[in-house]
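Model it.
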Amino acid sequence: MMQKYRKSYPVLNHTIYVNTAAYGLLGEELLEWRQNHDLDYLIGGSSMKIDSLGLISEARIMVGEFFKCNKDLVALLPNFSLGLNMLLEGLDSKEHILLLENDYPSVNWPFESRGFQISYAKIDEKLEENIIEKVKTDSVSVLALSLVQWINGIRVDLDFLKSLKEEFPHLLIIADGTQFCGAFDIDFENSGIDVLGASGYKWLLAGTGNGFMLFKDLAKSRFKIKTTGFNSANAVLTAKNTIHFNKHFEPGHLDSLNIGSLKCALEILNDIGMKEISAHNENLSARAIKGFGELGLLKSEVLHRNRHSTILNIKGNDLLFNHLMEENVVCSKRGKGIRISFHYYNSFEDIDSILKIIRKKL
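Modeled.
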């Protein structure tokens, strides 16, 4: 079914692109929208940019509907990292934080640089057990983690996070969905997550310069956000002291090109259907794990998980990486191996082709 969408991504005509975990592809539909946007700016000048404030509002509504979050609890951002740093400026320094060992630096570093008391859970096949053990023994009050790990693709169980929240209702759960959102479906309102953020340039295929944060009402009481600016008050001088929580993350003007790109990208994903994309990606994951596992290229921490993402780190040195690149397989070196990552524009044939290329070198 997903084969028909491949034609929107010309890169796929000359490469096997398995590098979405680094950058998602630019599709023809989004390119056309961006070109029309800038043409309107070229011709319309300031009047176009003033009118584009409506586009920002539409993007906020779109993000809320896509992830099932009240639009008034949606903050639009240039990227996740800026949003998290603004958020943590308003978090009580007495909070005890639980992080994952070797999680993405933009998740762990902002906590580590602020002097919080921090515990760490190990990322392996028993990830969920490791988390709950730390929560029970270390008096943890905040859990912050990536939903999918950037190096090996281990994906935390969303049902586990929901049950964890039910067992520990005062545990604040902050999640980075940059390697998850767009690859798999998520219902934020019915999840155990209190704060969900993501950058749009990977699996959402929205290009750089856009992202978002979603909040639960409960989360607002745990932060005293100090960030502010004229845009936070929607350019109303008398609204300085009545700024909504989400608008503290938008102190200055947002770029209508980049935020509009996020809106357009979400519309494209909606048209395809996130349930269909999720199912396709689950199938890709199963096919890839079976194939690379049979070649002995995957670690046990991945093979022993019930469900995984579409990111895999296969055993391989520079010679294998260079061989893959010479065969037009676009991937990345990460950690001690080679990271490959599949999205809905990939196929079983892509996986089988990569396996065939690797077998020649084994």
